[in-house]
Amino acid sequence: MVLAQPIHKSNGKATLANFNRRTHQPVSKVVYSVVHTVPGRMRLRIPQLRDNTAYIQRLQTLLEVDPLITSVRIKPAAASLVVTYEASQVSDAKMRSRLSCLIMTANDANVVLLDQKKPIDAKPKENAEEGAWPGLQLSVVATGLAVLGGPLGLSVPPVMVAGTIALATLPVFQRAIVGIVMQRKLTIDVLDFLAIVITTVQGQFLTPALMLSLIEIGENIRDRTARSSKMQTLDLLNSLGQFVWVERGGEKVQISIKEVKSGDTVIVYPGEQVPVDGSILRGKALLDEQKLTGESVPVLKTQGQPVFASTLVREGSIYILAERVGNDTRAGQSIKLMEEAPVHDTRMENCAIKIAEKAVLPTLLLGAGVFAITRNAARAASVLTLDFATGIRVSVPTTVLAALTYAARHGILIRSGRALEQLAEVDTIVFDKTGTLTKGEVAVIGVDSFNPEVDSDRVLAIAAAAEQRLTHPVAEAVIRYAEAQKVVIPSRSKWNYKLGLGVEAEIYGEAVYVGSERFLRQQGVNMEALNDNNRVNSVIYVASHGQLLGRIRYSDILRPETREVINHLLSVEGVEVHMLTGDNQRTAKAVAAELGIAPANTHAEAFPEQKAAVVRELHEQGKTVAFVGDGINDSPALAFADVSVSFAHGSEIARETADVVLMENDLHGILEAIALARNAKKLIRQNTSIVAIPNIAAMAIAVLFGLNPLGATVVNNGSTIVAGVNGLRPILKNSPKKALPSAR
């Protein structure tokens, strides 16, 4: 592990003093500069690249094994390094820090270079199960041999065909045994296995080969639509970054986030996430706590106040006494609560398959009865072949896969067949407010003038002039609003920003103050124009020459589509809508009233544990609950919901927890997903009829009059194919919204 002192800037260049932990000997400094940067790409100039081949090799190796870096280009003659990286996974500031460490680490001649053929943390492919039996491949080979030796009349040894069928039948046999021994019931696989054995013994190889191919195709499609029950462990530390600045022995060093311990003094700079829970030792900062608490407006925190992991330092820098680290932090406990949520069955539990399973024993007895009466094994095999379970096992997953594919093409990621099934049954939707029903960002909602000689546009122009180039969310909102109103923004000559209070600026020779009431009073501004009747929350004031000119009101405004979506859910779908928020009761009720959400369904001042409790309570009332949220504080509720929905721009933990991810970040996706799910459920019912009716009719013929096993296979497989094609209809439709009114 390499420790590093902070970057010191001098004449536009950055240097970093590194120390090797093993030898405690300093590594010589590497001078470099950032030439150009855009999101996802950075170009640096490192003079050492011109004449140090060993350094180039070490640096290139370290960069290439980094999982966040997608490409590396080094030009020694120009001393140039260009890297591209996953901008969606790491911020520009974090990547600068990461590259600093790698640039310095490469200068250590003792660094052990890893074999590039074995990348760090290489993950095996999801479907590459070690020792997996090639059932589908064998069944296809068996079908090919049966066709060559049957209809085509080629000389294919029967032993070869029968042997291939026997090998391909092994998965079916294993599932049948598991059903009998472990589940203590006769499953569909028992019927399949008996029909395959009987027809194979009789030398009718094409029938069992076709059966096996369809069975394996169905199983493969079915597995593709199932979400693994082993949810990937969500590590809070991975979502916070890789390195942390700490103060040890009077020096600032950069260490791995996993090495931070309780009692350490952690330093957090602007644009970085707080990696621990603790209290501020010194400094002050404006903290964005939205992902943890849901509060959209940053809060100012100073010495002695608590701070929490996963919150973002917008402005200022702070020294924190680490009290809780990793999964012991408040954010870590949210993840722990999420992981304790019940794991649902990963395959669709539809009534059609259950009915098919209940028909196994009657079908088996019927086949035995036919054989007992006729002593004709072929007729008995026909009865066993005509179960409608095979068709259902193929058509249902095909329908689900088509629906999931269609949804993905239209910006809706539905992770599993079970999620699709639950979406079709949803009768209650719980929305988090901040970032879900609202934009999750500050926006100006009005400008008021308190001076008859100054209109509101002038108040806005003065405020925008004072706030320009500040990174505070309210300042940015004022600039956006001024530009939208096409207000001419004057220039400022001098300015002084006071963290958490406001900004003092000189505009046209006038001293202007923009900020909180407290700030303006400190500057001696006359605030008599304010009274209890016109005071509002979420406001900044504008003053000049010691006189109050006006104020700018701001808020976290609703998404443009929110009212339409909520109204559709309430009036058209008849869905019960709830709203959860960490805001106070007054704010929550105002937003709920605006959207038509009942007061009884509005839950304010809700922490992660309370959000999960609300979802659990609704579920225990027998409701099928969908939860929509995007923050770390939403992850427990997402995990406990029957079906969970998040946005592509939400927190990494929320995205990983969610069953449905709206890639377009638009609430209309919920309506589309529900419509698609209900339409898929309707298709599954149709497919059940398409499969069941011909098979039941053919079974009656087989029992009463007799039916050749190949004919039974044609009926069985033909209905399966028709149902499968019908199941592909979702990907042929123009818009899932059309299915909404009739899908109920």
TrEMBL record:
Domain (P-type ATPase A) spans 244-339
Gene3D superfamilies of this UniProt entry? Answer: Calcium-transporting ATPase, cytoplasmic domain N, Calcium-transporting ATPase, cytoplasmic transduction domain A, HAD superfamily/HAD-like
The record gives the membrane topology as: Multi-pass membrane protein
Localization terms from the record: Cell membrane; Membrane
Query: Is Coiled coil one of the keywords UniProt gives this record?
Result: no
Species for this entry: Nostoc piscinale CENA21
Q: Which Pfam families match?
A: E1-E2_ATPase, HMA_2, Hydrolase
Please give the superkingdom of this protein's source: Bacteria
**Which SUPFAM superfamilies does the UniProt record give?**
Calcium ATPase, transduction domain A, HAD-like
Keyword terms, alphabetized: ATP-binding, Cell membrane, Membrane, Metal-binding, Nucleotide-binding, Translocase, Transmembrane, Transmembrane helix
Q: Which family does it belong to?
A: Belongs to the cation transport ATPase (P-type) (TC 3.A.3) family. Type IB subfamily.
Molecular function terms, GO-annotated: ATP binding; ATP hydrolysis activity; ATPase-coupled monoatomic cation transmembrane transporter activity; metal ion binding
Protein's name in the database:
ATPase
Q: Which InterPro entries match?
A: ATPase_P-typ_cyto_dom_N, ATPase_P-typ_P_site, ATPase_P-typ_transduc_dom_A_sf, ATPase_P-type_domA, Cation_Transport_ATPase_IB, HAD-like_sf, HAD_sf, P-typ_ATPase_IB
Keyword RNA-binding among record annotations: no
GO cellular component terms given for this protein: plasma membrane
PANTHER family, per the entry: CADMIUM/ZINC-TRANSPORTING ATPASE HMA2-RELATED (PTHR48085), CADMIUM_ZINC-TRANSPORTING ATPASE HMA4-RELATED (PTHR48085:SF5)
